[in-house]
């Protein structure tokens, strides 16, 4: 026998099923975090392990006058080490000052004796040029002129190239400077000695040749330059307004 369908009873039977199948709204599901028993580490977490103490500085060598390199700061030096550094720097300053003075002295000597137009070396070179260009000197010594050699005082060393040139300098009572020097010349036939006399009066910048002669043994003296005054050679003073006053 077929049973009669009753809609109200069917709804009452299905109502508990609808209640248990309900889902929470999406907005609430997004904020629910899953439960976990593990702890995720973050960069901002505090470590419970204590950091090791800093290692002590290695002992440095004591700074002295001889081993100071300037690597240690002044504030880290002891009183004795500061005194050692001060002594070293003072010594270095003295060495530099002495070096500067010696360099200046050597430079001055080189200029006055070699490079200056008024130096003895410059006068020697000009005198040699005149000897090599003089016809009588070339004839006596043996030429041509450029092959005539000139040198200073004889030396015991056969290998000495630069020989000392004997010279004298003086100032007379009238203020005139006198420079005299001699050197030796040698050609293909003979050897000779050249004597040079230069003067420079007060107010003059250039030296003037008073005499230059070349003497060859057994030959007549060759006069290359002769301007010496007879009166001055006898010790007489110069004339002022046409008269000598001493």
UniProtKB/TrEMBL annotation:
It comes from the Eukaryota. Keywords: Membrane, Mitochondrion, Mitochondrion inner membrane, Protein transport, Transit peptide, Translocation, Transmembrane, Transmembrane helix, Transport. GO terms for biological process: protein import into mitochondrial matrix. It is a single-pass membrane protein. The keyword Transit peptide applies. The chain crosses the membrane at residues 91-111. Residues 42-61 are annotated as: Disordered. The keyword Kinase does not apply. GO terms for cellular component: TIM23 mitochondrial import inner membrane translocase complex. It is found in: Mitochondrion inner membrane. Essential component of the TIM23 complex, a complex that mediates the translocation of transit peptide-containing proteins across the mitochondrial inner membrane. Required to keep the TOM and the TIM23 complexes in close contact. At some point, it is released from the TOM23 complex to allow protein translocation into the mitochondrial matrix. Belongs to the TIM21 family. PANTHER family: MITOCHONDRIAL IMPORT INNER MEMBRANE TRANSLOCASE SUBUNIT TIM21. Component of the TIM23 complex. This is Mitochondrial import inner membrane translocase subunit Tim21. It comes from Westerdykella ornata.
